[in-house]
Amino acid sequence: MTADDAPPTVHDDRLTAEDLLASPRGRSLVFGLALEQVESFPRTGDEEAPGVEAVVRNLRCLCPVAPTWSAVKEAMSDVVDAAVYWQPPDDDDWGTAEIGAVREILRPFAEKLVSTGLLDAWSKPLDPDDQWALAWDDKELNEVNGRHSELPAVFNCSLVPVDTVAGRPTIALADLFPPLDRDGTRLPWGLDEWLADVLTTETAYRHDFAKNPYEEVSGEWWSTPPIGLWSSTGTWPDGTPIGVELVEDDLGLERARACRLKLRPDARIAEISRPEDWAELCRRYPLDVTAQRRYVWFETTGRKGRWVIPDWSRVAEEFDGVHVGMAGYLLTAGAVIDVTEGRLGEESENIPTAGNTDDRTASVMAGWHPDATFWLNDVIDAVTEVVEWHYDGDADRWVRG
């Protein structure tokens, strides 16, 4: 996590085999690629796919083969599709396994994957010249799940004036949103409203727990900034926006409008490259959500204790955008992120503690898509390019148009 007025944190950016094996999403990626080799074993007649014990036995005997780029992309898509934060993981989800034996079985496959160099670029920071906001063209799904409708597609590209210097359409932000009042367009940042809602919800849950300390009530599961902020994604080497292929909880979205953003050059970016970066945001700007996340995150992690998320209204005082890169997602998403020993932030007798598994403060990065950036402040100058994308079921890929 870096600011423009401080030297960036320097990591050995390239992912290692140990990095992948230490994280739930990393293990899932390695296991998915290893399973492809097991499933490639020839079977005769009506022979069923191998069970878990047979998979383990076969993995021990296999000599790992270097995966192709397309296989890695498909396996990563499967990892994101399987990401859930509101229920217990599947029994056969190796991404959640912590025992040493599982890691050792997967280690040769992780080492082979890393040796290909296919993941080297996944550790790069945000590219300000390659940021695309996505508008999902599916009214029914947007009504069911408003988390996907960050950018309404309300303009007609044929009517947009062309920048004669760059030769590309220049679209003002006002073209993207209908006026909300007589004064013209207002952008729906909503950080203060979001904070008020989180605090109100937390208070209500605490009152419920005070009445019944063992009540199991599920609340919101995500830890993203509020709906209504702009978000963006980069592109794969072939130009496809990463955000159309790798979407948590996508509900079958099939059409998108990608809008290329022009950012202010002085935009301050917080990079989430590793769990420690997320933990640092939580330590500096803690927002206690123990009561409302207590049961839902216990379901997915098996932990009961004090939970915090970053207070995005305060993060916005230091950073304009928060970027979770591909490596940051693999290493951080879905893991119990240790923030600090003991309590952090306010002291309150109303914070539920019954049945706690430990006395630490932790967090979960949930609901983020790989290579996603949320923009907390007004640093987007314009949209300079618009591309329509749709999912081609026959080709099993996203294509332009």
What does this structure look like?
The protein is α+β, with helices and mostly antiparallel strands and 401 residues long. The two termini are 36 Å apart. The protein contains twelve helices and 14 strands. The longest helix is centred in the middle third of the chain and has 21 residues, at 191-211. 37% of the residues are buried. The chain is globular. The strands form four sheets. It has a four-stranded antiparallel beta sheet with strand order 1-5-13-14. It has a four-stranded mixed beta sheet with strand order 4-12-9-6. The chain has two domains: 17-123, no CATH class; 132-400, no CATH class.
What does this entry show, briefly?
With about 400 residues, the chain is of the alpha+beta class.
Uncertain stretches = 4-11, 141-160, 178-188
Number of strands: 14
- Using only C-alpha atoms, the radius of gyration works out to 22 Å
Strand order of the largest sheet: 1-5-13-14
Report the sheet-strand fraction: 15-25%
Mean pLDDT: 81
Number of helices: 12
The H-and-E topology, N to C, reads as HHHHHEHEEHEHEEHEHEHEHEEEEE
| Sheet having the most strands | 4 strands, antiparallel
> What's the helical proportion of residues?
25-40%
Q: How far apart lie the N and C ends?
A: 36 Å
Shape: globular
Structural class determined from secondary elements: alpha+beta
- Count of structural domains: 2
